[in-house]
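Incident review: delayed structure delivery

Summary: a single-chain prediction request sat in the queue longer than the usual turnaround. Root cause was a stuck worker, restarted by the on-call engineer. No data loss occurred. The affected request and its eventual output are reproduced below so the record is complete for anyone auditing the incident later.

Affected input:
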Amino acid sequence: MNLKIKCLREKLKLSDIQGMIVSNPVNIKYLTNIEAEGILLITRKENIYITDGRYIESVNSILTINDEVIVYNIKDVSKYDCENFFMFCENIGFEENHITYSKYKEYIHKYKINNFTETDGIIESQRAIKDEEEISILKQSCKILDDCFSYLLKYIKKGMNEKEIANEIEKYFKSKGAEGVSFDSIIASGPNSSMPHAVPTDRQISSGDTILIDMGCKYKGYCSDMSRTIFVDYVPEEIKPIYDIVLKNQEQILKEIKDGANARILTMMVEGDFKINGYTFVHSLGHGVGLEIHEDPRIGNKDYLLKENMTITNEPGIYIPGKFGVRIEDTVLVTKSGCIKLTNSEKNYTIIKTN
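Output delivered after worker restart:
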């Protein structure tokens, strides 16, 4: 039995929705493990995946009888079939944050839908809480990430540029069985580290630099995410108090994360402490991590209660324009009584010795 689809059906039933068209490829992969062009129809009695001849063989090789998904070649689906897939269904759900208006109209006409209903991110909300298999994969994704950080501490040398380091990260991930990066790596040295989403440049690493590293890999489709701020040869005195504030807040939030914790309250704790010390918190405290690098939940200024088995990031940061920035980030698993760090790289002052 496909438990993910079963859970989705139960949620749809509670919303008085009798069927759904799933067209977001990420949601299709989540529900079926299929990665191919096509759409998934959740009808009253069946789960139907419609694709074209290029993908039939690969899709059938992925599915088992327990997945309870019937595969159709689109050329074999008649107009009559389409008009009867949702027979006796009053309300059909769609992914309002994914499909275009033209596709919305196409589906209504093609499948003879009377009431096409928004589903308010129903699958994304389900994805936010991970099952045992997903957690196991995420742990391995984070293990590869930690190992890469250890490797970088030996690899980075003066004279290298940011792009070289970013390229080496991707090569390392692939050499360890990951598909690659889960997002474009941020390698920001010296004054470039003051930009939270800096893009790697040709700037060369030099003694006294602060290097902000934000990276993640994708392993079996699941993302990891971690940021560390490291130093070349020594830690500049002016950055120490800022680093200490960021680290203190990051570790305090780790103690507060648990089932039932309010994301807004967590954010306000960091914002308040930064403000007392004369700094501004310029981005969100964190986000969900899974099949996408940014997914539900969003850890920011809206009330949102965390739930057991969510995987989220915790990433406070302070940035001094034109000088330097500090961000420390871990991916963590929310539990009933606290959280478990999935990334475990060193967070105290980390110095690369190049002399």
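Verification: The CA atoms of residues 110 and 330 lie 46 Å apart.
Action items: add queue-age alerting; document worker restart procedure.
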